[in-house]
Amino acid sequence: MFLEEDFLCRLKGIERWQGDGIIADFDDPLIGEVLAGIRLPVVAVGGSYQDERAYPKGIPYVATDNHALIEAAYQHLIEAGLTQFACFSLPEAQANRWAQEREKAFRRLLQRDGLQVEIYRGMGTSAPLWDSAVEQQIAWLHSLPKPIGIIAVTDARARQLLQACLTAGIAVPEQVALIGIDNDPLTEPSHAYRSVR
């Protein structure tokens, strides 16, 4: 099953919208630029919590505590008896600095506990690249020690990795325990992994 990692945003004509206000995801800098001159009240939400200097200026901002999300997922995997861990992230981009914050939190927690840090970004996924992305994910999964707990930076990434595991015949959760982040309703039908919000 192919799921886009991000929902498509339509900004053209937003200045003519006659709502009472806008709550917008400001992870993409373009959204902040487009909404800068709008006359409606704007509240920004986003995934970057670490660096307040990166918050939008002059706009209320609700941010995600990425460290707390990763720590909750990591603790769940530890409580499940796992001792080997990996992180499935996204290719680095300005629009997803939250993914790098989640990687950094993962790295800090594992280094604190004296454990090996394994982070895999893989490819960004799109319909034309889907098969190549899954093949690369399968190769990465085969390279990992088992059993292992993997924290995916989003539920969409967890769902992709679940599909790669199923395609490769890797037992979930017995060999690969997956945790995604965000409680994405599109991925809820799959109970083979957990989600943190």
In short:
The chain has 197 residues and is of the alpha/beta class. It contains five helices and eight strands, in the order βαββαβαβαβαββ.
Q: Could you please describe the fold and organization of this structure?
A:
This protein is an alpha/beta fold and 197 residues long. It folds into two domains: 49 residues, Response regulator (Rossmann fold), CATH 3.40.50; 131 residues, Response regulator (Rossmann fold, 3-Layer(aba) Sandwich), CATH 3.40.50. The chain has five helices and eight strands. The strands form two sheets. The protein has a five-stranded parallel beta sheet with strand order 5-4-6-7-8, sandwiched between helices. Strands 1-2-3 form a three-stranded parallel beta sheet, with helices on one face. Helix 2 packs across helix 3. It starts with 21 loop residues before the first strand and ends with a strand. The mean pLDDT is 86. One of its GO terms (molecular function) is transcription cis-regulatory region binding. Pfam families: PBP1_XylR, Peripla_BP_3. Keywords: DNA-binding, Transcription, Transcription regulation.
